[in-house]
Amino acid sequence: MIRILLVEDDAAIVSTLCEFLENEGFSISAAETESKALALLEQPFDLALLDISLKTGSGFGVCRAAKAKQVPVIFLTASGDENSVVKGLDMGADDYITKPFRPRELISRIKSVLRRSGAEPVLSLQGGVTVDPDRGTVMKNGEEIKLSALEYRLLLVFLNNRGRLLTRNKLLEDIWDVAGDFVNDNTLTVYIKRLREKLGDEGQEPQLIKTVRGLGYRMD
Q1: Is the pTM here over 0.70, yes or no?
Q2: In 3D, which of 86, 87, 90, 88 has the Cα closest to residue 74?
């Protein structure tokens, strides 16, 4: 499991981000001060999310310590704080995101940084299926499964929302922009059927991509 250090002194933001990131499958440790964050960094982490301005201390000091341990850093910055952004990047920060931000955008940034750092794990599914997001490959019992670009994108949407109900409209929204192909409700049905077949998830009761009658789909 990916371990993230969150350094933020706004309790409401901490609560919201911890709940969201934990639901996405990350393990979160939070600190509201520089000193507490430095103490937590004695433990191993895969990534640090750092607010620059803290009531006690600064995110810059945590950034130095994190980079010394080769922990990737994403800064959470206030809108228009360009000087702080430049300073953070000069210190070796891997990315930054400006508040307020959309949670899905943050997830995208996190995964991008993890891919670059080589920390994004190979994901294991039922039936001997594994997905390597870094290489963009899908394997079943050691054999590569050839997916089209849209099938692979659809699989990633399910993986990024494991345990959540996805309506057909939500799936169409998430794959439309990236695919660049015409995708409608009927086409989505065809792609889900093809993806299930390639993953060996056919039958009356599929186990990987489950149908929630009248509502949508879910991957647990």
Answers
A1: no
A2: 88
